[in-house]
Amino acid sequence: MTQDLRKSSTRTARTLRTSGPRTTAAALDDTDRKLLALLAEDATRTYAELGKLLFLSAPAVHERARRLKKEGVIKGTVAALDAAKLDRPLLAFVHVDTTSWAVTRQLLALEELSDVEEIHTVTGESAMLLKVRTRDTQSLEQLLARIHAIEGFTGTRSYIALTTYLERGPSPDL
Amino acid sequence: MTQDLRKSSTRTARTLRTSGPRTTAAALDDTDRKLLALLAEDATRTYAELGKLLFLSAPAVHERARRLKKEGVIKGTVAALDAAKLDRPLLAFVHVDTTSWAVTRQLLALEELSDVEEIHTVTGESAMLLKVRTRDTQSLEQLLARIHAIEGFTGTRSYIALTTYLERGPSPDL
DNA sequence: CTTGAAACGCGCTATCT
DNA sequence: AGATAGCGCGTTTCAAG
């Protein structure tokens, strides 16, 4: 594997910020964004197929994809699974109200449970927000019981999803 | 492409429910679940590599993957993008309190916006829950303004994510 | 249902414009 | 920086246990 370490030299940036992005944000042209949108929706397409859609040759697409991967814009390629088929049809968002920040560390242990899909600290009355997917209400109750076993929080509020109309990952603006 | 339509005949189901699963939920053995977990975390692995991890040959893995795809357990393969690199670092959960269910239909139009990643109807005081990712607080405000333009809701409550400790898709129990 | 071997197609590199 | 040509490899299929 040849290491091509040249930095993207001078790529046409669309948005010109006065003092440059402090943290991250990559320089992407319109073709890059279109490519990312296509890959975010289906990453199994061949480079030839992508080339047709982007009016480019297959190697040209490959080069862009390689660059975007190296820059970290594409974090990886994963299989999207059907939660219901995995016998986990119950989706819930759990707000956890905490009194001390020490609780955060305890909650991170929940990462081990495959039921837990997301863990965030958030603003507002609740300090933490969990996205969990369980088999049924009993499994959810067990999970909540485990959270209640932790010291230093006021309580939890759960919002059970009735219907999911949209669920997708990050995608560029186009 | 040869169409192999034989149903998975008699596969060893681990959990034996008295009256069968009413809706969905596929019959998966331990190897299936391990394979799904591996693919959910990285779908770029070669079948040979997966075979080593599962103590199986490459075609055997391929056959299982094909079956899981046909059954819909694997919905697709997508590229996971870095939201920050896409210049969309602000993650927020927006609860929308509605008075009538007619609002639901209006909110579904928000699907067009790439900022909006998830739309659910939920139980609890708020009727709908949105997961949105914007460039900054101003973009979020614009989105909220658009929601407020819709008739028939009491208000919105937004929870801005400070830190995301875990964010992944559905994965089997193992 | 799994294992091993063979052929096709695609990813990837190198070269050139 | 994109297009064309070519090699190597992985996927995919087939027959056999």
UniProtKB/TrEMBL annotation, chains A, B:
What the entry lists under InterPro entries is as follows: AsnC-type_HTH_dom (IPR000485), Dimeric_a/b-barrel (IPR011008), Tscrpt_reg_AsnC-like (IPR019888), Tscrpt_reg_AsnC/Lrp_C (IPR019887), WH-like_DNA-bd_sf (IPR036388), WH_DNA-bd_sf (IPR036390)
Q: Does the keyword Chloroplast apply?
A: no
Q: Does the keyword Repeat apply?
A: no
Give one Pfam family, short name only: HTH_AsnC-type
Where does the record place Low complexity bias? 10-19
**GO cellular component, as recorded:** cytosol
Annotated Gene Ontology MF terms?
A: sequence-specific DNA binding
According to its UniProt entry, this protein's organism is Paraburkholderia ginsengisoli
Stated name of the protein: Lrp/AsnC family transcriptional regulator
Which portions of the sequence form the region Disordered? 1-24
Any one Gene Ontology BP term? response to amino acid
Q: Which residues form the HTH asnC-type domain?
A: 28-89
Keywords recorded for this protein, A-Z: DNA-binding, Transcription, Transcription regulation
